[in-house]
Amino acid sequence: MEDPQKDPAAPRRSQARGGTLQRGRRPRELGASVGTGPPAQDGAALQARARSFGAVAASYAVLRPIYPADAVEFLVGRDPALDVLDVGAGTGLLSEVVVGLGHRVRAVDPAPEMLAQLAARLPAVATAVGAAESLPVDDGSVDVVVAGQAAHWFDPGPAAREIRRVLRGSGVVGFIWNTRDVRVPWVAALEGAIADESRGHEADQRVVDLMAAELDADVEVVESAIVQRVSPEDVVAGIGTRSYVALMDDAARDEFLSGIRALLAGHPDTCGRAQLELPYRTHAYRLTPR
Ligand SMILES: C[S@@+](CC[C@H](N)C(=O)[O-])C[C@H]1O[C@@H](n2cnc3c(N)ncnc32)[C@H](O)[C@@H]1O
């Protein structure tokens, strides 16, 4: 299994796992939010955003952070080898870690361009175009369903019904998100610069509670962390893979990304630096249907 930490051909993917796992258990409760909740959005806009990833597939694979193995292991375990379905698998950043833990992975995503990137990197992973609300997977055929940075795109009711259908009796569901760590001053400044544009577009982890309710599941959560070693231009380009940026017209995108570039060039913690350490907090949620 390719280890991106050791792959000299992928220096831009240099990342360090720096997390201390913190565990917690959340009782099932509707309405509690652990993320910044988006305003209500109409279905067409949401669909457009959810479908925006194909256009940035190649950049996505190298510019987005991977997931810390300890948090992924919390979701899927290590032994014995399980059948794991990665939904919204994209370019395979989560699949790769799950494969590295010894599991058999199948990947589903609505964007064929994203799956093409995944297939090139992870030829052992079977891929299928599909969506969480209509999974191209047999009944009772997987032990774990996981979603990385993706479950907030799912329609909770239909997706939960599909997940329940494909899971074996004792199966579990794992959702994981990396979010930029705004406790670091320059990251907070970055977040401030993109707040207006990204509001309502970033991961909305309230879906955990909605899914838990639909699945009648208990929820456990761990927090970990990962650091991406990237150039300032990688930071700019990584923000360019966000759905809200991908959907801007060319002029608006250029202006927006120029603002990010200027911020990094001017902030005392980032100016003049060829390489930055971009820290992320990782939250991994394990849902166990009762
Ligand atoms: C932010 S990317 C995450 C990709 C990958 N899991 C990762 O960790 O890098 C979100 C992915 O969700 C997919 N997606 C959007 N709506 C979806 C849906 N309803 N069902 C399944 N996947 C969906 C997108 O095509 C995209 O590849």
Summed up, what is this model?
With 290 residues, the chain is α/β, with parallel strands linked by helices. It has helices at residues 43-50, 57-63, 69-76, 93-100, 112-121, 156-166, 185-198, 207-215, 232-239, 243-246, 250-266, and strands at residues 15-17, 22-26, 83-87, 104-109, 126-129, 142-148, 167-180, 217-230, 276-289.
Polypeptide structure, described:
This protein has 290 residues and is of the alpha/beta class. The chain has a domain of 198 residues: 3-Layer(aba) Sandwich (Rossmann fold). It is 36% helix and 25% strand. α4 links the parallel β3 and β4. α2 crosses α5, α6 crosses α8 and α9 runs antiparallel to α11. The longest helix has 17 residues. The radius of gyration is 18 Å and the shape is globular. S-adenosylmethionine binds next to α4.
Please name the defining characteristics of this protein:
9-stranded mixed β-sheet; 11 helices; globular; disordered N terminus; binds S-adenosylmethionine
Low-confidence stretches: 1-14, 27-41
- Let me know the average pLDDT: 84
Number of helices: 11
| Named CATH topology of the domain at 14-179 and 203-224 and 280-289 | Rossmann fold
How helical, in percent, are the residues?
25-40%
Report the radius of gyration as a whole number of Å: 18 Å
Most strands sheet:
9 strands, mixed
Distance between the termini: 34 Å
- In sequence order, what are the helices and strands, one letter per element? EEHHHEHEHEEHEHHEHHHE
The ligands found in this model are: S-adenosylmethionine
CATH architectural category of the domain at 14-179 and 203-224 and 280-289: 3-Layer(aba) Sandwich
User: Structural class from helices and strands?
Assistant: alpha/beta
